[in-house]
Amino acid sequence: xxxxxxxxxxxxxxxxxxxxxxxxxxGVYTFRFEKSEDVTWKAGQHGLFTITHxxxxxxxxxFTIASAPxxxxxxxxxxxxxxxxxxxxxxxxxTKVDTIKMAGPIGSFYLKEDSPTMLIAGGIxxxxxxxxxxxxxxxxxxxxxxxxxxxxxxxxxxxxxxELDQIAKETSVNVTYLHERDHLNKELDKCISSYSNDGHFxxxxxxxxxxxxxxxxxxxKVPKRNIKKDVMFGY
Length: 235
Ligand SMILES: Cc1cc2nc3c(=O)[nH]c(=O)nc-3n(C[C@H](O)[C@H](O)[C@H](O)COP(=O)(O)OP(=O)(O)OC[C@H]3O[C@@H](n4cnc5c(N)ncnc54)[C@H](O)[C@@H]3O)c2cc1C
Known about the structure:
Elements: H1 2-10, E1 13-25, E2 28-34, E3 46-51, E4 60-64, E5 73-79, H2 86-92, E6 99-106, E7 117-122, H3 127-138, E8 147-152, H4 161-170, E9 174-178, H5 181-195, E10 200-205, H6 207-219, E11 227-231
Parallel strand pairs: 7-8, 7-10, 8-9, 10-11
Antiparallel strand pairs: 1-2, 1-6, 2-5, 3-4, 3-6
Flavin-adenine dinucleotide (FAD) is lined by residues 46, 61-64, 77-79, 85, 87-88, 124, 127, 230, 232-234.
């Protein structure tokens, strides 16, 4: 069913008027666009974004929608190196009169169950979890979901740290910042022994990080059906 919804969504292209962009951290930029009434998504999903204000060759890329629907804005946050692709150069040149197109939302990377949930981010893989956690805050955390966010970044460059810490104070979400894989594995061990087969694990980030984490979870006997992956190809 979700598959057919995705196919349908891909043909629903919307123009998004550009609002603003700013640097989030070194090599990481946030872009915000207007959200019209008819656009919505489930926190954690992604869209296919197309450059329309310039003619470029590869004009479409998938990006997680890093904002929650309740924020009433469409936010994407991306890594941009010193030598950016044509797509990212075009993103940096957006001005207030420009729009981009979004197809979607698509994907099944969103919370469904009320069971204890571990969100595991590697670097830029924090984007779907920003959306999910903002959504939990917007809902008032009424159902007191047990959510633990583990944020791994070897450079200790934790984007969104201030807002994540603020939400952690106001909700039942727990945030742990890590910079070594061994420490992440130890945290995972604790969750696996606390929740055994009830825990759900959401893993997002570059392919190498997602692969290493899911392999570890499976060697620790976490059932495949309890692991969801969001692989950010291109890194
Ligand atoms: C579901 C999803 C969500 C994503 N969300 C984010 C996000 O929130 N923030 C963010 O910064 N990035 C995100 N990405 C990655 C993003 O789409 C780009 O691939 C990435 O930003 C690199 O783009 P680029 O223009 O810099 O480099 P590019 O010029 O596109 O490519 C860089 C390198 O990656 C390879 N590559 C590019 N795309 C793919 C692909 N689909 N499969 C295999 N190899 C590929 C190219 O061949 C090249 O070697 C997401 C990707 C996916 C699939």
